[in-house]
Amino acid sequence: MRRLKIPPSRVWVVVAVAAVPALLIVLQIVAFQRGFEGPLESLWHDYVGTPKSMSVPWAGLILALVGIPMQRRLVALGAAVTIDLACAGARLLAGDAPTVGNGPVLVLTALALIAWLRWSGSERRNALRAAALGALLILATKVGDVWLHITVMSSPDVLDEYVMLADHALGDPSWVMGRVIDTLGPVVYAVLHWVYIELPVAAIVVAVWQLRRVVDSGRWPSHYLVRTFLVLGLVGPVVYVLFPVVGPMFAFGADGNGLQVGNYWPGVLPPIDRNPAPLPFDAATPRNCMPSMHTAWALSVFLHTRRDVDGSPAPRWLRWGGTFWLLATLAATLGFGYHYGVDLVAGAVLCMTVESALREPERGWGWFRIRLVALGTAVLVVLLLSYRYLAVSMAEYAVPAGTIVLALLAGVAAAFHATWFAGQREQVVVVREVEPVER
User: Cα torsion at 284, 285, 288, 290 (round to 10°)?
Assistant: First the structure.
């Protein structure tokens, strides 16, 4: 009796198709019981109500368009723009804000249905795979919104007093950048704020550039930015519930709604408290600081703008764009009081660890990959334990503690560079063909 061999890629597709709806239903039930908007309710508003985000639906559609030819892209874009203009006009006439976002969600859904029911071969596969990526991007934001509520439900107390002490080892960079941004004025603030909230825009630009040859070649690269983004979104927020932190502008600033330690940020450094304790906090502020996921995502954008998916150097405009986005994101996370410096270190280590697990899958899981992932995981655990249990010592011995923290980060970065960038193979890395191209 011949055994049926199922490709691993199809197994993962079946698992995802079964798991994603189940996850959305469970989260919707939790949201309904707790009285906040769940993912299915938010998704329904994207179709027939007021979308929660204007940029994310469009980012999802643009990502989906990489899987179809140019003529169909223009038709899809025209349809999405027309629907959005009609919906925005109706809201304006009703006295509401002219929010957009319905059009891309409706067109993305129609694109997936048409590809599934009417197209065939590589044309169908490319369209469905790209549409799935676009849909996952949108759904990931819905799940993320609910997860922020879950961090509040699971952690009534926060550990900001410990993290602030540990941050003394790095020179209290949030306080420094907060004062710098205040000095630079509203224009710099506006630019950094836009960069911070529109991180998906940078990710889509890079992803579209990486996937630009999919339709013509019929081949998908073995690794690209969207994969890293999605895996980071799954792994990173788990730490939120293990290490709940709200950030200096809340725990030590005027936005703490009366629960803050004091109104210190960004003008005055708090005194060293040698008896830190968990701080009871409100039921509204997400505990989403440790690690800094904005840092992790911005660093992944930077890494994916260094080279093309075939190993060749990326164009100069993309390299400079990735560098600007990373630096501006780091400045915003610190200067707006959203994160401590040690959050950024943890986020960077997490990014390089996840990226090492995913990059160049055609090389397999040799010792070169296992040791790098193990190193990143171990360093992240050591950092988190140090922030929690050695915070007072880190504040009292700031110079050696800060040197060790930065040395650990530099060690992971050096190992990452040596493995994936130094001595880059001269030959172009051959991209993986998912299935033979039908002619």
Answer: -130
* DSSP classification of residue 261: S
Tokens of 139: 């759904």
d(CA 222, CA 219): 9
Task: Tell how far CA 102 is from the center of its chain.
Answer: 23
Using a 10 angstrom Cβ sphere, with 0-12 exposed, 13-18 middle and 19 or more buried, the burial of residue 210 is: buried
Nearest CA to 226 out of 210, 247, 242 is that of 210
Which stretches of 168-314 are DSSP H helices? Answer: 173-184, 186-197, 199-210, 214-217, 225-242, 248-251, 293-304
Q: What is the pLDDT along the chain (439 residues), one digit of tens a residue?
A: 455 455 554 555 555 566 778 888 888 888 888 888 888 998 998 998 888 888 889 999 999 999 999 999 999 999 999 999 998 888 888 888 888 889 999 999 999 999 999 998 888 999 999 999 999 999 998 998 898 889 998 889 999 999 999 999 999 999 999 999 999 989 999 999 999 988 888 999 999 999 988 888 878 888 999 999 999 998 999 999 999 999 999 999 988 888 888 889 888 888 888 899 999 998 889 999 999 999 999 999 999 999 888 888 889 999 999 999 999 999 999 999 999 999 999 999 999 999 999 998 888 888 989 999 999 999 999 999 999 999 999 999 999 999 999 999 999 999 999 999 876 544 444 444 444 444 3
Nearest to 229 by CA among 428, 59, 77, 418: 59
Q: Which residues pair with 313 in a beta bridge?
A: 307
Distance CA 349, CA 345 (A): 6
Work out the widest C-alpha separation in the chain, in whole angstroms. 76
CA-nearest of 223, 218, 415, 373 to 307 is: 223
Model-wide pTM > 0.85: yes
In 3D space, the residue among 328, 227, 340, 330 whose CA is nearest the CA of residue 288 turns out to be: 340
Displacement of CA 20 from its chain's centroid (Å): 18
- Report the alpha-carbon distance of residue 291 to residue 344 in Å, rounded: 7
Assign 313 to helix, strand or coil: strand
Specify the length of the chain in residues: 439
Of 229, 214, 223, 217, the closest CA to residue 60 belongs to 229
Distance CA 421, CA 424 (A): 5
